[in-house]
Amino acid sequence: MNVTQNTEAQRMSFWERLYIPEIVRGLSITLRQMFKPKFTRQYPEERWEPLGSYRGRPVLVLDEDGERCVACGLCSRVCPALAIEVQAGETERDKERYPVKFEINMLRCIYCGFCEEVCPEEAIVMSKDYELVFEDRESAILDKEHLLVPIHQLQDRLEFLRRYK
Amino acid sequence: MPVITIDGQRLEVPAGKTIIEAAYENGLQIPHFCWHPALSVAGNCRMCLVEVGMPKRRPDGSIELDDTGQPVISFLPKLQIACATPVADGMVVRTTSERAVRAQEAVMEFLLINHPLDCPICDEAGQCKLQEYAFRYSRGVSRFDEEKVHKPKRVIWGPTIVFDAERCILCSRCIRFANEIARQPVLTFVERNDHVTIELYPGTEFDNPYSMNVIELCPVGALTSRDFRFRARVWEMSFTDSICPGCARGCNIRIGVRNNEILRLEPRRNLSVNQYWMCDQGRLTQYGFVNYNRVDGPHLRSAVTGKLEPVSWEAAYDAVAAALRRYKPEEIAIIGSGRLTNEDAYALVKFARTVLKTPNLDFPRRDDPDFGDDFLRCADRNPNTTGVLELGLKPSAGGVGLEELPEKVHYGAIRLLYIVEEDPAALSPQLRQALEEAEMVIMHASNYTESTRYAHILLATTTYAELEGTYTNIQRRVQLLRPAVATKERERYQGLQMSRWDKLGAWNDRWTHGPRRDCRQTWQHLQAIARLLGTLWKWRRSEEVFLEIAREVPSFAGMTYQLLDAYQGVVLGKGRNPDPVPALQYESHVLKP
After folding, report:
1. Statement to judge: residues B335 and B445 lie in one domain
2. Cβ of residue A129 closer than 8 Å to a chain B Cβ
3. B557 vs B548: CA distance, rounded Å
């Protein structure tokens, strides 16, 4: 049914119905912005360094004495997208368990950070890595080799967790 | 019978029972760690402290009543342990009163003082009694800031068990099990105070046929299986109720499966058969063959290469039917197996008698006197000898049994061997020679064995973990098996138990890629072949075969799968009036999904 009464056109004044003043007003805003400082980043050349609170790709912490993960499987259990798969094995170290296999399917990951929150060993943390490009589905499943990151690269995040978790 | 009141609920209990037994027999629960219905009462965990009161009596012995006519209850000044206090007429027990709850919280706090925060590493996590009670009966916070006592970890107790002294809460269940059930008294408490730990006597090892039962018995993760250690978290597995095929006892088991691979077997309670236990042999050897070395799909031996080549089911069945048509009934001998389920054995007997009309039908006994003992293990290593004999899997009049078979094959009287889920070549050299000399060998097999080398036609069958069926154990009890492992034909969502991953995972997730074998149950093969040979068999499920058995075989009369489920198995001939299930259905601690 067509609405013919109390329409937008009926409510407009004469000047508004002309449209020309409105067009001029819009152009002036554009013109003003041209002389203001620019915020655009020249991305591949200029990179953005996120803060510690940023939730990028989840990674495993590689401590001085090896990986922290004990393969408890809580990240895998809590993951709402079922992105994580862990297979445990036995080791001679103090903490008897370690992940034989640890895989995160980055096509499934939704960067919620639940895995980091639930981890009893602070072994999985969200990194600053936001450049995630894969050429096929198989290479989007990251294994331990791709996930382990030396602890010194994760200091910002660990400091953030220490303060706010 | 004495009448007692637990938390306001009036119960009639036979005299001599303890409070905790009365509670569990009537579906009530009292928190406890050390008490177990199959073991003696130790009373050392103090978790089952309850408030116990008796009616107040006047000097003349009459019961004092209050204004409303109810007896006045005088509670004992101290709490009593429910596991060692026998019931008395008029007794009133409170398990949730303020004093009882305070005691439970105190005991939990004491137990948790030195208990390590090992849960992420511990195999028991998820089905741990201490974890469960920490949620239900403890205050949830620790006031203990000091260093916990450290004790040895990873102590090897024997070939099958690793002990972690830190996790141990000293309930003494394993000690009592070793003394009373396994009859190998090698465990004892040592040290004092918070340094108490359990040790083996010097120079001994905990290695008896039932040693691994202490793993389930242990309320915490102090005792772990060297076989299973760290292979999976419990919540990643699905658990299916089944029967152990290791010997004629038919112990009730639970099959733990992840990614379509069996990871462990554990005993399931059935007070009429195996109580709460199973033997290590069954637990360790009865799942490997389901995971590895499987025949996948039907195979025909190629005339050109002499090797088994995979073919389609239709082609294989056609080949079997053609081969069976080529020989006279007396020239065909069927070797069945004591590992067949009742359904498969019934189908095989029907196939032999009505379709092939051959009298030559037998199965090899598998007796191992060294294996049998006076507790659970039976010398008869076939799980269903009773059942297949009951269903008539034996040579009819004039038929050839296994003893004469090699000779008859040698002289050409028998030319076709039809072998169903059996490995005759491994049993005796004579049978191996018979296989070599037979003109035609048709086999149903789940695994590649010595005998499959001689097969001309090989039909892949299910193992016990993939089929639906029943076994009849040595006590003539018919017990139900459910499929735990998915096959090409029966996917997991078609009625199998599913873990969370099985439910939520997609087809392309890696943890759903566990191999599905293209195999069918023996009665399905026999039905397909029988239909090609001109019968009109039409069973769709094992249940329909079983219903036909119940109609045709008098001793199975009245039995259905529902009945077997409800009564935890039914003894032959009692299908119409099964023995009642014992009242005390106690489950110490299991994964609660």
Report:
1. yes
2. no
3. 10
Q: How many domains does chain B have?
A: 3
| Inter-chain residue contact A70 with B509, CB threshold 8 Å | no
Residue type, B569: G
| B178 and B152 within one domain | yes
The CATH number linked to B418 is 3.40.50.740
Binding-face residues of A in 58-77 toward B, CB within 8 A: 70-74, 76-77
Tokens of B195: 């340094």
Cβ distance A82 to B501 less than 8 Å, yes or no, reads yes
Interface test with A, best of B117, B118, B119, B121 (most A CBs within 10 A): B121
| A121 contact B CB<8A | yes
Same domain, B207 and B164: yes
- CA-nearest of B262, B215, B257 to B239 is B257
- Confidence grade of residue B391 (pLDDT, cut at 50, 70, 90): very high
Which CATH number do you get for residue B264? 3.30.70.20
Q: Do B511 and A85 touch (CB under 8 A)?
A: yes
| Residues present in chain A in total | 165
Instruction: Return the CATH architecture of domain A58-164.
Output: 2-Layer Sandwich (3.30)
Considering only CB atoms, A70 lies closest to which of B121, B236, B505, namely B121
Residue B66's domain is classified under what CATH number? 3.10.20.740
User: HSE of A148 in the Cβ direction (CA atoms, 13 Å)?
Assistant: 15
Indicate if B429 and B561 belong to the same structural domain.
yes
B559: closest CA among B579, B538, B544, B574?
A: B574
The answer to whether the CB of B505 falls within 8 A of the CB of A76 is: no
Structure ipTM:
0.85
Do B412 and B553 have their domain in common? Answer: yes
Assign 3-class secondary structure to B529-548: HHHHCCCCCCCCCHHHHHHH
Strands across the sheet with A84-90, in order? A84-90, A97-105, A141-142
* Residue B265 sits in the same domain as residue B316: no
Residue in B closest to A90 by C-alpha: B230
pLDDT grade for A153, boundaries at 50, 70 and 90 = very high
Chain B residues whose beta carbon lies within 8 Å of the beta carbon of residue A82: 501, 504-505, 509
| B63: containing domain | 3-113
Q: Which residues of B touch A85 (CB under 8 A)?
A: 510-511
Q: Which of chain B's residues have a Cβ under 8 Å away from the Cβ of A72?
A: 119-121, 125, 233
Is B381 in the same domain as B475? yes
**Are the Cβ atoms of B229 and A95 closer than 8 angstroms?**
no
| pLDDT tens figures, B482-504 | 999 999 999 888 889 998 888 88
The answer to whether residue B474 is domain-embedded is: yes
- pTM here is 0.90
B328 shares a domain with B311? yes
Measure B149 CA to nearest chain A CA, in Å: 16
pLDDT digits (tens, 9 = 90+) for B248-257: 999 999 999 9
Partner B contacted by A141 (CB < 8 A): yes
